[in-house]
Amino acid sequence: MDGQNYVVFHNDSDDSYMNSSANFRGAEIAANVINCYFESPVSSSVGPSAYDKIVLAVGTAGNEETALQALGGAMAGSKNPVTIIADDKNSVYCDDTITGVTSITLATGGSHVRVKKVLADTTLVTGDSGSIVLVNPTATTAITLPTLATSLAGWNCKIMITEDIAGTVGGMGQIVNVDFGSGNVVIGQIGSSSNVAGDFSVANDDFVNFTAAASPGDYIDVFTDGTNWYVSGMCTDAAASDVLFHTAAAA
């Protein structure tokens, strides 16, 4: 053995993480969670700020400090060279206040981004931040964004149509509704290749709808500051209203 202590997190089948406690770079608490950071194995290729992030669930509000201390004890664990911090498969945790692994997010090597292909109704989650979401629906499809919260500040994605939802390519004839959550402020502008002015502007609506006139390559970029949603994008023909801010989902 090399004398190091190794820590293990099991979220689900094919979603586990192990690292040396020597690479542990600290943790912070928020409501019902502990955010743990480890130096990434790909740090040499993407820089010293590349950290893997493990989010642990704390079952009862007010126990975050106790759970954080228990985590510190487990990290120092000299009794066993491999310490199970959290195992959702077998319900094994280093302390009773820790109730699960919420997510495992690895630092990305090089300049790769995650690509998520969507064919039907999909709810995006915290771990989808930074993704390019390619939409090729077989029916009218809703893409629901994560629940807006201050802890979500910095979350972002690009949503792009990859087939002609008017039906001329693939014969789908479907509509895609991007749901920002009821009552949330959506601010942004969407331009067009036809340079038609005034069709798209600042809006306070709950949906951005890719209508039946949308075309392959129409897209929106989305991010949040934790309080509002912000949108920018491009569509083929603004006169045809490819992409619309709207108070309701299009049918």
Brief account:
This protein is mainly β and 251 residues long. The protein contains two helices and 19 strands.
Strand content: 35-45%
What is the averaged pLDDT score?
A: 80
In the predicted model, the low-confidence regions spanning at least 5 consecutive residues are 165-172, 197-202
Proportion of helical residues: under 10%
Listing every helix as H and every strand as E from the N terminus to the C terminus, the arrangement reads EEEEHEHEEEEEEEEEEEEEE
What overall geometry do the principal axes of the alpha carbons give? Answer: elongated
Query: From the helix content, strand content and strand pairing, which structural class follows?
Result: mainly beta
Largest sheet descriptor: 6 strands, mixed
Structural Rg: 22 Å
Total number of beta strands: 19
The number of domains is 2
Count of helical stretches: 2
Q: Tell me the span between the first and last alpha carbons.
A: 62 Å
- The main sheet orders its strands as 9-11-13-17-18-15
